[in-house]
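Workshop exercise sheet. Pairs work together: one partner reads the sequence aloud, the other fills in the structure field after running the prediction. Swap roles for the next sheet.
Pair: D.N. / O.F.
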Amino acid sequence: MIGVRSNSFNDNSGEPEQDANSALTELDKGLRSGKVGEQCEAIVRFPRLFEKYPFPILINSSFLKLADVFRMGNNFLRLWVLRVCQQSEKHLDKILNVDEFLRRVFSVLHSNDPVARALALRTLGAVAGIIPERQNVHHAIRRGLESHDNVEVDAAIYATTRFAAHSNAFAVAMCNKLSDMVECESTAADRRAKLVRALRTVHGGAVRAQGVLKLLHSLLERFPSTSSVRAAISALTAIAADTVVHVPDQVELLLRIAAKEARSAVRRAALVGLQRLAEHAALWPAHCLQRLAGAAADCRDPRDAMLCLRVMQTLVRCPAVCAAAGWGCGAGAGGGALRHYCFEATLSADLRRAATAADVLTRLVVHCYEESLPVEGSDLMLALESLVIATGQRPGHIKPLRVALRCLVQLSIAEPSLYAERTAATLAGQLDAADGGGAAGEGRGRALALVEALAALGGAARCTQHLAPALPALLRAFNREGSASCEESEREDDGTMLVLVCTVMFQERAAARLRARLSRGWEQRLLRAATARDGWTRYRLARAALRSHDTPHHSPAPHSGHMTLRTTRPRRTQVT
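Structure field:
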């Protein structure tokens, strides 16, 4: 019967004749059913009803009905009502009779069942956005924290976190209470970790955060268990990120933990905190760059080394960090140590690590070129070329390859005269090797990535004229794609490779037209290759031709079952 009712609702939910009232009436029948299964079925369908009919009158009536079920039902039904409140948070402001809804839920707090009281506290926490300043609820949460039942205390901690996010007065009032519970020697380690996580939201602003920070710093020394230390690190980092003014001190603390802590879980928590604080890179002290590089060099776990590199990746998005770590500042400010570590990491056998380090160095080099600062990019170019070649030795390295290709393109765009032609030659050589390794699987994906990089290089205005070294390899790839049958092309990549190769050729020919008179033979070869392809591929080829710069306009026109590319020149209009 339950399955029949559910299917009936789902089938009729899209029909216009079932309005909001009929849908609510159907769910109300389920709520008043004597079977728990049908009641649960009706409760869990309310979020979908709210999404389909977000009307205040309907939502208000529905939540009042759910509050009645919460007041009169068992704990299993209360749990599902709690889930509805959590899933429908964005519709809570449409409840009109807030007092009546609160009265029905609040009455469960007088129950003798601690589980029922815990569910009531969690439900009140879920709707904290519409009752943030209700003093009776604040008092009930405080009583819940003093309970001897673990389930009720955990629910009170959850409600505290929710209300503190909406009420600054409540956060300030509960700060001392939570601090006393954290400092109590009888508090279990897992409970202390939950309380510390709650302190992240109840500090009450930058002024009161100072006291919470002192408490958390003392916890690191008094309670050295892994769960307590990780929770304290997470809370300290969250408060520092919120208040901003404590970022420098927190960065130094996390670097000290990352360098000296023997427990991998604690060390990793510190590195995750550094990654979050890297969003405020401008506030990092200059010497912390050197300490970060030192901590990364001392890492024995490859996962910790990758976390350090990701922190550096976030840091170098900030121009101030790029300037401090650039070649013009020398090694005294910490930039030399960071660059030295990244250069060593680019030679790592772990290609993911090498690609991440190359990305960090590329951002530094590109920033220096853009700001006309002293820079040396030849070593980075060698490292990127080696990385591209290394990714082709074994399968499964597409992601590091794409990172390296992106770095090569960025470096070439920053200084085309030094790197663009060399990049084109490198990619052309790898394209021949990738196509020679087979036309399917890993080799096919590698070839597509290489041609995409060439297209990105040709898309930059200052790099188009440097595509000439790649033209022979592109012609060979074009011949291979042009000779492939239509059915084979559709089975493999639906003509994507041919479209990309032709796009790069359009870009190169557009630049060559400015220097010499070109033969029309390549256009005829393109037409022959496009004839055997499907209509979608031919459309993409024509669109690529239209988008190429400084070339005659090409328009697709179907004729005798295939596409021809008509060459027309734009009309010149006289402007008066």
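Discussion prompt: Residues 28 and 42 are 8 Å apart (CA to CA). What would you look at next?
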